[in-house]
Design goal:
Blueprint: E1 21-26, H1 29-37, E2 42-46, H2 63-73, E3 76-81, H3 90-103, E4 107-110, H4 113-122, E5 128-130, H5 139-148, E6 152-154, H6 164-171, E7 174-181, E8 196-198, E9 204-206, E10 228-229, H7 234-240, E11 244-247, H8 254-272
Parallel strand pairs: 1-2, 1-11, 2-3, 3-4, 4-5, 5-6, 6-7, 7-11
Antiparallel strand pairs: 7-10, 8-9
Helix pairs in contact: 1-2, 1-8, 5-6
Length: 278
């Protein structure tokens, strides 16, 4: 036991359900509890210094508490690790991944091919999900990431339901789609703002692809404001083979997380009910 919860090697990773999974965001421990109370099957968190939007991520020492909360609820905890380390940062980055694995994190979400290959070699058997930041669009993309060692892939919101079956047949991967996310003016996962100046503490330059320092400046650009949501088409996506329905929003407050998860829990349960297909 480590810090009162089972480590990766002391407890089998939670089995992934065969029915569609509702994956909820959380940027704090209260948000983790809110997501679980509202009916999330799994929760994904960021980890400070390892994830974009790192200010809303959990401090590393809080990850074990989040794991314990998920275990009590019969849910899984996923960690979104989407900062890309430089060569000099790789040893510390790997050590951080080992600590997350040993803390009991059920799955890690990564967004760099080299990091995926390294994580698979160093952590055999630990489930890896290819982030939307890799913008997997077709069967060959998915097969390439499977060969690197991933178990699942998050598809961009540009992918339509009819595109899922060939991707799934070619790769055999678990397919995650966004049930609810902010609108994208570029392909989801591909940021056109490769670097920009920032003010205030730690001023200098920031990038969505380095160091977990994305400031979401795109939200101040004149782009569509309506959220992307497939809540009224869930049966179509289930029939197409989507395994996980992901809600975006690690920056959301616990009440906002609870409201979204409650809404999607109700709709997903209705879509999966035996009468839904009649």
């Amino acid at each position: 036991m480590r810090n009162g919860h089972p480590g990766y090697n002391e407890c089998m990773v939670q089995a992934f359900p065969s029915s569609p999974v509702l994956l909820a965001p959380a940027g704090s421990l209260p948000a983790v509890e809110a997501a679980l109370s509202a009916g999330a099957d799994a929760v994904y968190v960021g980890v400070r210094s390892l994830s974009r939007g790192g200010r809303t991520g959990l401090p590393p020492e809080a990850v074990g508490t989040a794991v314990s909360a998920c275990r009590r609820a019969g849910a899984r905890l996923h960690a979104a690790i989407n900062a890309i380390p430089s060569s000099g940062e790789l040893p510390a980055f790997l050590a951080s991944l080992h600590r997350l694995r040993d803390a009991g994190v059920d799955e890690v979400i990564l967004n760099d091919p080299g990091v995926i290959a390294l994580a698979r070699r160093e952590n055999p058997g630990w489930p890896i999900c290819a982030s939307v930041g890799l913008s997997v669009l077709n069967p060959e993309d998915a097969r390439a990431y499977r060969d690197l060692g991933v178990d699942a892939v998050v598809l961009p919101s540009a992918v339509r339901p009819e595109e899922i079956p060939p991707i799934k047949r070619a790769s055999g991967l678990r397919i995650e789609v966004f049930a609810h996310c902010r609108p994208e003016f570029l392909l989801h996962g591909k940021c056109g703002l490769t670097g920009y100046a920032v003010d205030g503490n730690g001023s200098g330059t920031a990038s969505a692809k380095r160091g977990g320092s994305c400031r979401l400046v795109c939200r101040n650009l004149p782009v569509p404001s309506a959220s992307h949501s497939i809540e009224d088409a869930l049966p179509v996506w289930i029939a197409a083979g989507a395994d996980v329905f992901k809600i975006e929003g690690r920056e959301l407050s616990p009440p906002a997380v609870a409201a979204l998860v409650t809404r999607f829990r109700r709709k997903l349960d209705a879509a999966c009910a035996p009468s839904a297909g009649r």
